[in-house]
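Standup notes
- DV: blocked on the single-chain target, sequence here:
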Amino acid sequence: MKEGSSFAGRKITYHDSCYLGRANNVYEAPRAVLQALDADLVEMKRCKTTGLCCGAGGAQMFKEPEEGNKDINIERTEEALQTGAGTIAVACPFCMVMMTDGVKNKEKEGEVQVKDIAELIAERQGL
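- DV (later): unblocked, structure below
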């Protein structure tokens, strides 16, 4: 494998998308990819079958939250931030938007990156 950016000791948390996870029961494959990058995978308190939606599903990303309720993507981003990971890995373009917006809302853009698993693979490959 061509060496790119080192992932050793890099904390990454993975957000389970509804499509891969709950709809298709794919939980371990994305984690295996992240572990193959030699990253330190840290799980959110709600993950795999108990994972929380990013809030985009069913066109929810275009709706305003009901009064007094927190945006789902903010709640999910808070869970990701609690892990202390510097990278939130996703495998869905809608999750990418929602988690990126959540990181911006929390003003953590300088500390936390949201990246698709494909981007992380390319980075590791030095592409």
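- Follow-up: The helical segments are 19-23, 28-36, 72-82, 93-105, 117-125.
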